[in-house]
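Progress note, project year one: complex with zinc ion.
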Amino acid sequence: MKARLNGVFLVACAVFFLLTLTSASFAYELPKMVGITCDDGQADSLERMLSVTIPLGLKVDLFLVTDFLDEGDWSIDWARAKELQTLYPGLVKINSHSRTHPYFTSLTNARLIDETRGSKLQFSAHGINTDDMGIATPYGDFNLKVLSFVARYYPWHRAAWDYDGDGVINKWPLNDCQLEIFEPTPNMPGEEVIARVQEDIAQGGLPLLLFHEFTPAGVVPGDWQYPIEEFKKIVNWIAANSDTIKSVTISEALHLTDAPNLVKNYSFTNRNVNGWAKNWSRSGAGVTINTAHQGNFPEFTNSLRIVGGSVERKAWNDQVPVDEGSEYIIKMYQSCQNWVAGGWCVWVDEFNLDGYYIGGQRLGGNYWNFVGWRYYQYQPSPGTAKASIQPYVEAGSRLTLFVDSVEMRKLP
Ligand SMILES: [Zn+2]
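Model obtained:
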């Protein structure tokens, strides 16, 4: 029970059950978009691809390996990377694919930091723009621990297959920490790839295509290669449909709205004298601010920590004004890697103009280990003027939950 005891508790209870049954929920739909991504930066292949995408005005995300850029023989070098950024701003976005292209799940913590943070520092040192820079783990080799390190230094992570196996690439709600891709096999006709993109968009997905190398006309493609002639069919189709399907970089696709985040102290950086977060309240034992780097980019030092116990444990932010007729996206980073029993949920407390509790909505729950971003869609119940976001761990749970970067943004 989420209701806080006050003078109108009984009324609140009645309203609470009514609202739970009747509150309208809206179904957010992603805009129609498609992304083209290319890994490893093999020089000839990359130039072959860009000679096709640039004239059409299509955007591409490149995932480059910084130590390969140092060598600059098989891969493009730093000078060319910088030149691409300068020549084609908005069309070529450079992202990280680590320093040395290792299997991330086999790395020590120190190596994980070097391959993630270290790679970004290299990009920065060579004048590559790291704003909104994401990362793709080599070989799509990651686990929850890897993701928790990746999340410290990058706002998003691209995987290397349809990770959740639901048959749709990035079906809403997204997880910025495990963005899925579709990689055409060497002999797949361009028409088949186009059909796949259309199908994905029709099912509410965000299709991201992954390519490694492009072979010139007349050359039989091997593993991880794709014929440039078939690629031309795909990009010509994307360009011809640009009125309805937008060519995007991943960071653009994830920018759902320009609206400001309504949550104060959303990253738990401001603390009062007893160490608890300003602008946040808590139920009591087991709910603290952790300062041991369990949060996410950019301020990953502090995060909210809730340890499961025999009773429900929760935290909630100061009430923010909301408009009854509007729709909101709530997003937060959540990390749990020691699940034994129970689960956690996100609840929204709702209040009328006078600040009286009138009910709320349960937005979703998790009953297993998880590291990543969760999106929730929220439409205030009738009579709601203020709302408060409340992550809570259910009674009887045995788990430790870290929460960071709590966002609530109004949709246009
Ligand atoms: Zn790779």
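The first strand starts at residue 33 and ends at 39.
The chain has a mean pLDDT of 93.
No further modelling is planned for this target in the current period.
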